[in-house]
């Protein structure tokens, strides 16, 4: 085959062999290309088929246990804020029981005194107690619980009714609504202090203030002028 023999020149036979080899090579190359094309086209068709065949089936575990994002957490109920007078108004205080103790809020207290008195005289003052509640109540009016104190214009203590001659008594009173009880206290006209050891003297003429007390209840100030 490498040395063909024939009537024609040898180059003719070599040309024919080259042509045959070229044709065979073309046929083999085309077959290989066609095979690759068929394989690639099959993969593309499978991908297209898988993408257009519908939703992917959900795994069995996902059908049993829902995802956290799909579970709705219920919100706590909202309680509307109270508005209006009911939201700020304090609860009313319980009404006092009839016949119970007279608290400081249930009584009024004032000092009654003459507008003026002579220096060295012995004026009588009164401690007036009144039941300002709507029900009867009970209050101790013992002498040891009563006191009137005098102050000068600068606020210095001048005299106290319990300084030198304190008295004691037991006086439990039932006060009707609006009832007033006047408790008299006589001033000796001299100065004093709680221990009653300092020298006593008549205060100088001028304006003074009287303040009363019944146990824990304190009265407003009353004025008196010594002449």
UniProtKB/TrEMBL annotation:
Give me the stretches of Low complexity compositional bias.
Answer: 80-90
Say if the entry is tagged with keyword Transmembrane: yes
Chain spans, region Disordered: 67-99
What top-level branch of life does the organism fall under? Bacteria
Name the UniProt key words of this record, in alphabetical order.
Membrane, Transmembrane, Transmembrane helix
Residues crossing the lipid bilayer are 18-39
Q: What is this protein called?
A: MucR family transcriptional regulator
Q: Which organism is it from?
A: Blastococcus deserti
Task: Recall the taxonomic lineage recorded for the source organism.
Answer: Bacteria, Bacillati, Actinomycetota, Actinomycetes, Geodermatophilales
